[in-house]
Amino acid sequence: MNNLLLKSVGILAFTATAAVAQAPGDDSFEKVARGRYLATLGDCSACHTAAGGAPFAGGVVLQTPFGDLVGANITPDPDTGIGRYTEEEFQRVMSEGIGKGGYHLYGGMPFTAYTKVSKSDNSAIYAYLRSVEPVRNKVETNQLPFPFNIRASLIGWNFLNFSKGEFEKNPDRSAEWNRGAYIVEGLGHCGTCHTPKTSLGGDENDRFLEGATLQNWHAPNITADRHRGIGSWSTDEIVQYLKTGTNRFDTASGPMAEEVENSSQHWNDADLNAVAVYLKESRTSATEVPDALDADDTRIVAGKNIYADRCSACHTPDGNGIPRLFPKLSSAPLVNSDDPTSLIRVVLAGSRAGGTKASPTGPAMPSFAWNLSDDDVANVLTYIRNRWGNSAVPVAASEVKELREQLQE
Amino acid sequence: MAKRLPPTDAVIIGLGWAGAIIANELTDEGLQVVALERGPWRDTAADFNIATAPDELRYSQRQDLMLRTAQNTITMRNNPGQKALPMRNWGSFHPGNGTGGAGNHWAGITFRFQPEEFRLKSHLTERYGSTTIPEQLTLQDWGTDWTEMEPFYDAFDKVAGTSGKAGNLENKIQDGGNPYEGPRSSEYPTRPLRQPYGPTLFAQAARDMGYKPFPVPSALISEPYTNSLGVTMGPCTFCGFCTNYGCANYSKASAITTIIPVLVRKSNFTCRTNSEVLRILMDASGKRATGVVFVDSSGEEWEQPADIVIVTAFTFENVRLMLLSGVGEPYDPITNTGTTGRNYAYQTANGVQLFFDDKNFNPFIGAGAVGMGIDDFNNDNFDHSGLGFIGGGSIRVTPIGAAPIGNRPTPPGTPTWGSEWKKQTVKNYLSTMSIGCEASSYSMRNNYLSLDPTYCDRLGRPLLRVTFDFPENDLKMAQYCTDKVGEIAKAMNPRQYVKNPSKGHWNGGPYQSSHVVGGFVMGADPKTSSVNKYLQSWDVSNVFVVGASAFPQNPGYNPTATVGALAFKAADAIRTLYVKNPGPLVQA
After folding, report:
1. Under an 8 A CB cutoff, do B51 and A359 touch?
2. Cβ separation B232–A371 shorter than 8 A
């Protein structure tokens, strides 16, 4: 009986899909395969595939300072997914942030970046999404409190934060650089996590990729800045990080671990290289480098002892870490970030690195919340941030206390 | 009635070292593999947290990583005339449990057996004549040889990242390594660990006496290493919480630090934990296994049909499953017929403790397998003519880390409690060391494994009964080798040294060694062995039984590298021979 019911639902869904079928040739093998690669490149599943859920059936919660947004069902289910979207309507979502029927999407769907995606790429992504299994799963994407839940407010938001337009090549740069720019600024939507946000949640475009904090993780500066950014990484090392989740400097954790596992480990080498070239040869943040604290500063003295006892076995006494296993703390962008959120977080809550086909180890950092006080955490992080070539503002115990409370929620 | 699951190409029983190696090889071949593990899922990130792993009470005293005896245990007796009694707390040995198995809490000593071992009976007969082997012993050849084994030892070393110094590279003896080892095709993957003070003093004394000290080969690695499967390990920090503990630093090779991270990313691999196999199912002919029945943590029984059944549990459970499933004929010591349960052997543990006044060993600095050893009195490395025994032991100093509850070295005659005991602890803790001698254990007719007629597990299945006592040969060997250790101890000039050779009957109470071997041994003759040189059952050709259960006797070495090599050997046979042409790989 149940079986029969399931079958009927399946047939219904199929019929509905067929009713809005596209022009012949749009679902060619090559186009669908290209669309699948592009969907991976854009990491659609990060927001649209819930852990353990059906692919692209939605349900991933994105916590913003304004409230929760939830990734939509983008399978071809006609009622709960995008089964009734035409290609033009899909194109409009990507390039303008406007959904079927004319409503405005929130910036959680990074159309401010996707607007740069070419029409032909959107067409391929659309063809691929039409080919996946339709899943009936109703998602209420807008879970924001009043007044942010009023979509009309987005008209004004768009005016301030959004400039529409496909990516335009810079003729003075190499094809490789341009491909990298297309990915980073467009489909790859790197700025969604890595670019500082205005009070309205829009990108501070003049500080592109200089680092931002979201969901209690700080996504570090990934400009070519040699202090806070990844200026000291070679292009090969950037490629290695994106492909395997680890290199001699760092190991991806938190949301970046998910990105590597779901997205960049599957990018082709040309795209990985293009992104690395673009990051190396574009902007560098020009903020001042603070002086490191003195060795006899009381916080440094206390932190040094904690580091020796609790951290040095893995991260090594000189902060060099173990390549591909325990992150290097000396000259690390995350360690030198002005915002220590991620550092505090991993000490308090621990963290598990992503595992990839190329680097399957997946090592973990344990939680020290149960046996390091707020002062201890602040002191050891202040020590780490001011030794071995690092220099960054001290961490205050109050910052640790605040994050500890937030993490317990 | 067990519920039937979808069939799979291969089912693997036990996901420790051997199970993980074979699962990885067979999934690489494209087979669908289901692993059944009676214990819980364990991995470094979740279970061996650096902030909680060094807990002596939990892991060493309360044996948190060992099989719970309420789930399964053994019964024991010294000879067939006695009634066996169950072991209610693990004493003599420490069977593992959960993914990674005993490989999580092992010490990490990674010796290869020597070429002579694989043809021990032939070798001894050729060297000394047939009368030198004491009549009580039932020594056997393994049905394989060094040439066949070496590539698989090499494969194991490259997965484990074994640290050490080659003593014999392609038949060229190397300075600083063990000159008695079989010719290696390549150097150890990582350099030897740095040596603490005790091993350094021992090596100096041994060298002065003309012996040939070398760094003990170790699965605790000395430098960052990415293994042959792409998994990365970090260098050992000598934290001293090693034997009986899981490693929190990704430094001790085990299935969970070297193989399982790769396995879990494969779509043709499934592992079911807390799933204990009850028996192997046979078709009507009794010549072919059709799968296994297992019970989950809810008490539900499931049938897992499979084309190939691979048994990679601990020695005890390998043999017990064969007895419970009727694979092979049970061994009978009276008639000397049958093979299942035959040639059970152990390890003969000896040592000498040295008390100094003027030394500080900082004994809390340690690791399960860091140290210096000599092989001058191991196996047949010395002339046994006229000695009245055969065999020998690996003599070595390996400070495992003197944790505070279990390590209270006091000289003989000290009270075991009170102020004098405390005073002696303070006096001796830093200045005491010991030299161990892990020696051979040779099989004999009355040492065997069988099903217990009285005691059952919680499911009503008979427990495995261990009938074992030390052969006269081994006790003589133990005395001789311990005396040799005593000579080295004396040369080190301590205030006092105390010799502790194995003597008397086997006693299951005090911990001695987890190196229990045999019971389902490999060989060339189905009358005296259970599996052929590919670890394939002579009787049921789609059953492979892999582990130390295949050793016909035990040399003076730790077994794990050989278990690993045999797992690679069996996997290679399945990949290159069996899947192309299922059936017996060796004609009996």
Report:
1. no
2. no
